[in-house]
């Protein structure tokens, strides 16, 4: 049953969404500066500062998902925001790479307590086109954070390499606002909506609807590609084009965020014209073109083209995945099912250095982007086949 969320609550949802995205992007423009100022940092381990938190989001999201199904999203959400502010801002005072990575581990645990409750709150509160609209708004605000936060981080990085970490303090007042104003969707309220639905476990849900596994895999790949951009594009601009100004570097990440913001804001209209599978094909096709072009013509114009095409696809794909999960999961298991999507999303954020560091060592930036483009092309073909034959994920594997 749809429920109206007041403006204060909607503000908290949208603002918190930008913080979850900000976890890595806020410090991306100063990654090269961090390498020169953190004891023990080198070209490879510095990338883990951008991605290690994602591994722990992936690990802890199912724990928070089970908690949401028991107590509702408010308590874990509030806890996550408060710890987010403390753990993130600790980077202001850290001087070595090991301690920095440890602080990012705690940041990841905090984000796990923020990301899943946001989606569950929207799915439990809205239905139909209204849900499409709010989910698009949430994705748009998150993408807008991808515009604003890197610019702010880059500007602060001009003054001092560690100042961008102070932005994480925004989690503390937002957590207090959540404690005061966020509605409490407790288990009893959720159960009241699910009286007619037989309780099933997560495994039973996956057996009945195996295509959920395809959604999880696609969510992981979305974040692999996003953080391939966030990790390698700033280094490409800095090393390949001889640019050292962190504010200038942040513009490239912000262009991607602008494209994603506009795309997500228009999501309601896009969803009215295309199926979820169709939106996936469009997004993957755009990524294929962008990555392949950049791999063959490394320069400022190809970089801008690639980040724009990626941003457009990202803005359409993320709300599609969340809505798809809402359609395929039962209300009383929604916290756990959405938390697993969160796990795969943030596992994807952790993987780029593991996947692409060997490719980068052998083939430099061109190899990284060509590999990404070919992988996106392969996935495009799979989802085109799925669209035509209406195949489930299990059918694709047979």
Task: Describe how the helices and strands are arranged.
Blueprint: H1 7-25, H2 31-37, H3 47-71, H4 74-89, H5 97-125, H6 128-159, H7 171-181, H8 187-193, H9 202-208, H10 211-240, H11 246-265, H12 267-273, H13 276-296, H14 300-328, H15 334-350, H16 352-389, H17 393-397
Shape field: globular
By secondary-structure content and strand pairing, the structural class works out as mainly alpha
User: Uncertain regions: pLDDT < 50 for 5+ in a row?
Assistant: 391-398
Distance between the termini: 38 Å
Task: Explain what you see.
Helices cover 80% and strands 0% of the residues. The chain has helices at residues 7-25, 31-37, 47-71, 74-89, 97-125, 128-159, 171-181, 187-193, 202-208, 211-240, 246-265, 267-273, 276-296, 300-328, 334-350, 352-389, 393-397. The longest helix has 38 residues, at 352-389. It is globular, with a radius of gyration of 20 Å.
